[in-house]
Design a protein that fits this description.
Number of helices: 3
Strand order of the largest sheet: 1-2
Order of helices and strands: HEHEH
Number of domains: 2
Largest sheet: 2 strands, antiparallel
Structural class: mainly alpha
Helix content: 55-70%
Length: 106
């Protein structure tokens, strides 16, 4: 004879663990969203010029890393509707990370 009750109990425990894991993930996502809501600057979309944003980001990174040879050649229409502050922050972070994590020859 087969112990159906034991199998059902084991399956129920597995399902309860999965439900607990989903609940924990949901709570973590909610907490992350709350942190973003309370600490992030609001999205401010409006007319902007990506060329100017790039120039400012390069100037900021150039001031922090004066020994780096930073060049940029804009092309095309770089005017659009965007969040200038966030894009500027993104570019500064990307450029800074690229410089910080570049392997130097020598």
């Amino acid at each position: 004879m087969r112990d159906v009750g034991g199998t059902v109990c084991r399956q129920a425990r597995v399902q309860l663990r999965r439900a607990d894991q989903c609940h924990d993930r949901g709570r973590a996502l909610f907490q992350h969203a709350e942190i973003l809501r309370t600490t992030s600057s609001p999205v401010a979309v409006g007319p902007g010029n990506l060329g100017k944003i790039c120039e400012l980001a390069l100037a900021e990174i150039g001031a922090l890393h004066p020994s780096e040879d930073l060049r940029w050649s804009p092309a095309g229409d770089l005017v659009g509707v965007l969040d200038s502050a966030r894009l500027g922050e993104l570019l500064v972070n990307l450029l800074g990370n690229a410089i910080d994590h570049t392997v130097r020859a020598g």
